[in-house]
Amino acid sequence: MTRIAFERADDDDLINFAVGQPDRTLIPVDKIQASLSTLKADLTPQSLNYGLPRGEDSFLAPLARFLTHETGVDTQPDHLMLTAGSSQALDMICLAFTVPGDTVLIEDASYFLAFQIFKDRGLQLVSVPRDSDGIDLAALESLIETHRPKLFYTIPFFSNPRGDSLPVANCVDVVTLCERTSTLVVSDEAYQCLNFDGRACASIANRTSSDWVLSLGTFSKILAPGLRVGWLESRPDRLNDLANLGWVNSGGAVNQWGSLLVARMLEDQAVSPILTKIRHTLATRASLMHEGLSASLGELANWHKPSGGYFFWIELKANIDTQQTLPAIRAKGVGYQPGVTFSAEGQFRSTFRLSFAAYDESKITEGLTILGQSLMDLTVGR
C-alpha cells in the first residue's frame, strides 16, 4: 500500500482539491486569541502540570454540554476522554485492543490515513462493502465469521471519501451484529458537527449505549487542526482501558494546554457561533461545486451532492485510471485524490475525491473548469 504524502492548500500554482483541510481564512484566530488572553490571565501552576489520563473535568464537562447542545442528545462527561485528535485516538485504540497480526475490517471506500495507522501497528485489513444503503450486513457477518476481527472501522457521517452518511437503522444493525460477535466498532466521526442543516449528528456510541462502540470526535474541523484537541466517547469502562495504557497513565492527559484553551472557548460560548458560520460556508461551497460539476462533468461522471462534511465522490463513466492521469492534470493546475487510495484492495480506479473545504468560491469555479476540460480531453482522446 502506497503511503500518501502530506499536502497543504498553500501552493499558489495548484488548486488542490485533494486536500481535506479547512480553509485557513476561516480559522477563528480572533476568537482563539480572545479566549487565550483570558486563559493566560487565569494561568496557575496546575494548568501546566500533568493532567488526568482521561482529561480534566474542566474540559470534559463543557465538552459534554457542547455536544448535548449541538446534537440534542444528552452527553455525560464520564463517557468522554480527551485525545490529541482522531489519528492519535485511532493509534491508541490499536495499541489497547489489538496485537500485530490481528485483522481489522474497514468499509470500502475509507480514509487512507487510517489504513496507514493500522498497517503501522502490524494489522491485516479486510474490506467490507458499503453503498448508498449502508454497510452490507450479510457481507459483514460473513467476514466476521471468517476473519474474527478485533475492530470494525467506519466513518458513519459525511464519509471521507464518499461524502454520504449511513442510515441510522443501518448503524444500529451494525452495532448489534458487532456486539454479538465481540467486534469493537471504531466510529470515526470527524464530520459529525458539519451537518448543513444545523444539527450535529449524535454519536454512534451515544445512540446505541453499547460497550462495543468507540466514537472519535475532533475540533480540527471546527476550530483549528493545529490545536490537536479531540475526544473519544464510549462507556466508562471502555475508556478506562485506554486511560490505563502505560504512556497515558504515566504521562497524564495528552495536550493539557490545548484542552484548557478549547475548554475556555466552550465556556465562553464561542464555539457554536463559529460552527454555524463554518456550516453555512461549507453548504454554499458544496452547492457551488455541485453546480460546477454539472456544468463541467455532467456527461462524464456520476456523483451525489453531500448534505454535510467536505467531500464529493466522483465516479467517471469512462474506464480512466485516475491515479495514472493525476500527474498530467496537476500539471495544468488542479489536484484531486485518486479513488484507489481509499481502498485496501485496489478498487475505485475510475473514481476520485474532491474537497470543497479549503478554497473560496472563485477558486472552486476556476479549478472545476480546468478539471472538466482536462477530463474531457482525456475522454475524447481514448
Number of domains: 2
- Can you give the helix content as a percent range? 40-55%
Q: What is the residue-averaged pLDDT?
A: 92
The CATH architecture classification of the largest domain is 3-Layer(aba) Sandwich
Q: Give the termini distance in whole angstroms.
A: 29 Å
Overall geometric form: globular
CATH class of the largest domain: Alpha Beta
Strand content: 15-25%
Q: What does this molecule look like?
A:
The protein has 382 residues and is of the alpha/beta class. The chain folds into two domains: 15-27 and 273-380, Aspartate Aminotransferase, domain 1 (Alpha-Beta Complex), CATH 3.90.1150.10; 29-269, 3-Layer(aba) Sandwich (Aspartate Aminotransferase, domain 2), CATH 3.40.640.10. Helix content is 42%, strand content 15%. The protein has 13 helices and 14 strands. The protein has helices at residues 29-41, 57-71, 86-97, 112-120, 137-147, 168-180, 204-208, 236-243, 246-251, 256-267, 271-297, 322-330, 361-380; strands at residues 15-16, 80-83, 103-108, 124-131, 134-135, 151-154, 184-188, 213-218, 230-233, 301-302, 311-316, 334-335, 337-338, 351-355. The protein has an eight-stranded mixed β-sheet, with helices on both faces. A four-stranded antiparallel β-sheet has the order 10-11-14-13. Helix 1 packs across helix 10 (256-267), helix 2 (57-71) crosses helix 10 (256-267) and helix 5 runs parallel beside helix 6 (168-180). The longest helix is centred in the C-terminal third of the chain and has 27 residues, at 271-297. The chain starts with 14 loop residues before the first strand and ends with a helix. The model has no long low-confidence stretch (mean pLDDT 92).
